[in-house]
Amino acid sequence: MDLPDRLALLGAEADIMTSTCMLDHVADWVASGEGGIVANHNLHSLYLYHRDPELRAFYGRADLIEIDSTPIVAWGRLMGYSLARSHRSTYLDFRDDFWSRAEAGGWRVYHLGGAPEHGEAARCAILKRHPGVHLECRHGYFDMTGPENDAVIADISEKQPHVLLIGMGMPRQELWLHQNYDRLPVVVALPVGGAFDYEAGVTYTPPRWTGQAGIEWLVRWAHDPQRLFERYFIEPWALLPHLMRDLGKKLTGRTPPPMPPAMARDQNWRRRQALTGAHTTPQAPRPVAQPQGSVVPVRRQAEG
Fold first, then answer.
1. Model-wide pTM > 0.90
2. Is position 90 within any domain?
């Protein structure tokens, strides 16, 4: 199955794909017995990405990177990329499609994350809508090093899930996955943040039209202003230098040194195989997304 186009924005990379496209890849990997990592970018993750080399290494090894941000989609459109609102992909929008596929395909799904007291409520809510789903849950309150982490890895290995959902918040979930992915059984892994808090009903769920309208962030902030003020009103300013670089390249037609995406992807895969014996396989060459009316070769972030 061909991979989606990958674009470079705000000093990072993401894929042009809808939620349906992403789930098609997940289904394909599950059916073929392959593993994979589906990451996602929003403005908060970009803020962290530019400050943490280990987080950049995680994104460098991701097989797919969703855009979970209406402002990023809007900025990409302004830069000339063929993006639409449908290219914003977030759990609340694809959850019913995901669980329907999991139920129909007999996927074993394991969720790691959330508070101990919320896991069962989330599980019951999902099973009420999709009673045939095979779902295991384990809370995310554990030490990421030492015996507690070993016990988590052992439990996942015993359950042998097809899909692993990690909901421990950003960047903890990404760093845990990066540090432990090569110890896991072959699995498709998706960081999903507070997805199961929504399922359990302990976090306010904005109406889905707010995401399409581009105001979901504002509704979230209105319901949790103390926690989200810095994320929504302070952190984005740190991306201003990257925004100006994007704008400068758009206006002057300058391009970075080219690196074919297929070559970069193959190099990342071979490095993972040599260093860790990772269990993913190289996939079809990735076509380069170029802004309309200009040529912008994309440099793939190297792992490590």
1. no
2. yes
39: three-class secondary structure by DSSP: strand
88 in any annotated domain: yes
- Lowest mean per-residue pLDDT among 10-24, 42-56, 173-187, 241-255: 241-255
Specify the length of the chain in residues. Answer: 304
Q: What is the CA radius of gyration of the chain?
A: 19
Task: Please write the tens of the pLDDT for every residue from 7-44.
Answer: 889 999 999 899 999 999 999 999 999 999 999 999 99
Total structural domains within the chain:
1
What DSSP element (H or E) covers 110?
A: strand 108-113
CB of 168 within 8 A of CB of 113? Answer: yes
Backbone torsions φ then ψ of 8, nearest 5 degrees? -110, 125
Residue 255 within any structural domain of the chain: yes
Query: DSSP H helical segments within the chain, as ranges?
Result: 19-32, 43-49, 53-61, 70-78, 91-105, 119-129, 147-159, 172-180, 195-200, 208-213, 216-223, 225-229, 240-252, 261-276
Tokens of 206: 């904005």
Domain membership of residue 300 (yes or no) is no
- Token code pair at residue 242: 């990257």
Tokens matching residue 88: 């914003």
